[in-house]
Write a structure and sequence with these properties.
This is ATP-dependent DNA ligase. Keywords: Ligase. InterPro entries: LigD_pol_dom, NHEJ_LigD. The protein has about 290 residues and is an alpha+beta fold. Helix content is about 30%, strand content about 30%. It has a 6-stranded mixed beta sheet. Strands 6-5-9-15 form a 4-stranded antiparallel beta sheet. A two-stranded antiparallel ribbon has the order 1-2. The longest helix has 19 residues.
Length: about 290
């Protein structure tokens, strides 16, 4: 296979390189296979990242290579057609990539942007349109405990009129989302923290709302801090850079309420999408209707 291949994607010329490079040595999964996955999953991935300032975890030498870095700024040499978003922060103003097209997705993936992360807002950091809870099991806890906490959190959100969807983190936990009408950062974070504290009060043996490691044994940390404007969360359908290629994949509440396996590789996710469509579609449909109490 040639080292570099120029191809046309949505009318844009994208040069792909070293497609036979192995990115996941444990399984032999290559860069070319990863790019093929992103090309095929793009119809359901793009709606969840377009219009948001993307951050990437880039691993030029694969998941076991020595180089791994978190990239926020638009990299030098980016094509002029790549859409960007200006993000005004407390310490700097920067331009970040807006993954709003298949061409941009393929360009970024070719740069070894294995993981795509996005914030809970679009162009205005103080207008959040998503609430997120990151369920992270501590030592001695696992997916079974995360499932239980997810169901508890879903019911609290439902009491407050918020529709909740859930996906795997692609690692060991779960991510819960609820769509919001544009809501200030402070209000979103305060609500998420209060919800995590309520779950801890009601189930102290199962839930902790603080990150301290000495508190987390056998419990699930409900990370409400992901609602800060400066934070990002792994995007729906992104690959994760673990020992094996896994995906942060939407799952159903029936799967959460059962003992179904909740680890999915790229091929499994594509099969699920072909069968069921976008499991996170409700997050898009409800974007302007969710209101915090």
């Amino acid at each position: 296979m040639p080292d570099r291949i120029a191809t046309t994607v949505d009318g844009r010329t994208v040069t792909l390189s070293h497609l036979d490079k192995v990115w996941w040595p444990e399984t032999g999964y290559t860069k070319g296979q990863a790019l093929d996955y992103y090309a095929k999953v793009a119809p359901v991935l793009l709606p969840h990242v377009a219009g948001r300032a993307a951050s990437f975890i880039r691993l030029p030498d694969g998941v076991e290579g020595g180089t791994r870095f978190y990239a926020k700024h638009v990299p030098p040499g980016a094509p002029e057609w790549v859409s960007t978003i200006e993000v005004v922060g407390h310490e700097e103003t920067r331009r970040q990539v807006d993954v709003d097209s298949l061409a941009t997705l393929m360009w970024a993936a070719n740069l070894a942007a294995i993981e795509i992360h996005v914030p809970q807002w679009g162009t205005d950091p103080d207008a959040h349109d998503r609430l997120v809870l990151d369920l992270d099991p501590g030592p001695g806890a696992g997916m079974a405990e995360c499932r239980e906490v997810a169901l508890l959190a879903r019911d609290v959100l439902a009491e407050d009129g918020l529709t909740c969807v859930v996906k795997t983190s692609g690692s060991k936990g779960l991510h819960l989302y609820a769509a919001l009408e544009p809501t200030p950062e402070a209000a979103t974070s305060a609500y998420a923290k209060a919800l995590a504290q309520r779950l801890e009060r009601e189930r102290p043996e199962l839930v902790v709302h603080r990150m301290a490691k000495n508190l987390r044994a056998g419990r699930v940390f409900v990370d409400w801090s992901q609602n800060a404007s400066a934070k990002t969360t792994a995007a729906p359908y992104t690959l994760r850079a673990g020992p094996e290629p896994t995906v942060s994949a939407p799952v159903t509440w029936a799967e959460i309420d059962s003992a179904a396996e909740l680890t999915f590789g790229p091929a499994e996710v594509l099969e699920r999408v072909a069968r069921d469509g976008d499991g996170f579609a409700p997050l898009l449909a409800a974007r302007t209707t969710g209101r915090l109490p």
